[in-house]
Amino acid sequence: MSLDRRTLLAGAAATGALAATARASGAEPVYRPDVSLKGRSVLITGCSSGFGRLTAELLARQGARVFATMRGLPRPEGAELAALARKEKLDIHVIALDVTLDDQVAAAVAEAERINGGPLDVLVNNAGIGITSPIEVQDMAATRLMFETNVFGPHRMARAVLPGMRRKGAGQIIQISSQLGRVITPWSGHYSATKFALEAMSEQLAYELVPHNIDVSIIEPGGYPTRVWVNRNTYSQALKARAEAVHTDGYPRQVAAMGTEDGSGRANDPADVAKAISSLIALPPGTRPLRLPVSPGNKPQVPINEVTARVQTEWLGPSPVMGPLVKAVNQR
Asked: Is 191 a catalytic residue?
């Protein structure tokens, strides 16, 4: 293939019809509260609160066997979820898992597969963190922690579950990204960098797993009032406390605001994300969209998703090797 950039973009612009058929353009599957997920096994990371906790409860109430993982067990959040499972007779298993630790990833997946009696059906990579500051202020400790959690963590988890899914010949991976995985705001640290990386890794996985009948979908939430804001403030305050003046002096207003974010004014319902995950699982294999923006408000990433789906298809579609994989994902 010898397409130059100008030819590529011109060709992409000429394939507008693809946008109407590509599920990557933002068409949303319909959530059905009465759907039965009985017989599905789902491992979710980051279940102590927010999207992870809500998803664990919703999927279990819809009949799924849920492996709700969180770091730092024993902790009150784990005990509360286990008590809820007993009270409502939900098939929820709380397992210790820090996605930044290889041994805990391997042990958690092995335990879930043991309880399940075989490979898992669905992995939801939800665990993630943010540390807010100008890029220059982000020291290597903050940078490594964000990439370890938001990028390397999902990578570890995918590597752990995929051998079993491939043996079974079916499976599903759902990645929780962000609008900021496609658009960028100043002073949000390396958050966009990690989510851009997650989006790229996930799209490549989606192509490579087509022959194995394993679907990969990326959920791109807008802003929601979860505990991510509390955790982000903790990390950001710690960074501010150790930051050197040689780096902070150039950004006095932004540095002063580090660790003071307030997400309480956001009215969006975090259950939107749990419902989106349920709707993706309920769709027939091979029909699930690559990207699913989730927000009742503005979705600035949608036109970007449309363009990239067209460009990928125009660029690699003619390839006899890669074309079928790219089309299978981007023309759903």
From this structure: yes
- Residue 112 token pair: 């879930």
Domain that holds residue 19: 1-26+301-332
Query: What's the rounded Cα separation, in Å, for the pair 177 and 174?
Result: 9
The neighbouring-strand residues paired with 291 are 218
Alpha-carbon distance of 60 to 62, in angstroms, equals 5
**Helical residues (DSSP H) of 117-270, grouped into ranges:** 140-147, 153-168, 191-208, 228-242, 245-248, 252-257
Question: Are the beta carbons of 94 and 52 closer than 8 angstroms?
Answer: no
Identify the CATH number of the domain in which residue 180 sits: 3.40.50.720
pLDDT (tens digit per residue) in 198-253 = 999 999 999 999 999 999 999 999 988 777 778 899 999 999 999 999 999 999 99
Are 184 and 314 contained in the same domain? Answer: no
One domain for residues 57 and 192: yes
Task: Report, in angstroms and rounded to the nearest whole number, the Rg of the chain calculated over CA atoms.
Answer: 20
Question: Which helix (H) or strand (E) segment is 88 a member of?
Answer: helix 76-88
Name the E strands within 59-185. 65-70, 92-96, 122-125, 171-176
Q: Which of 191, 207, 235, 251 is catalytic?
A: 191
Q: What's the whole-model pTM score? A: 0.91
Contacts 24+ apart (CB under 8 A), 317-322: 318/1, 319/1, 322/207
Instruction: Report how far Cα 69 is from the mean position of its chain's Cα atoms.
Output: 15
Cα 200 versus chain centre, distance: 12
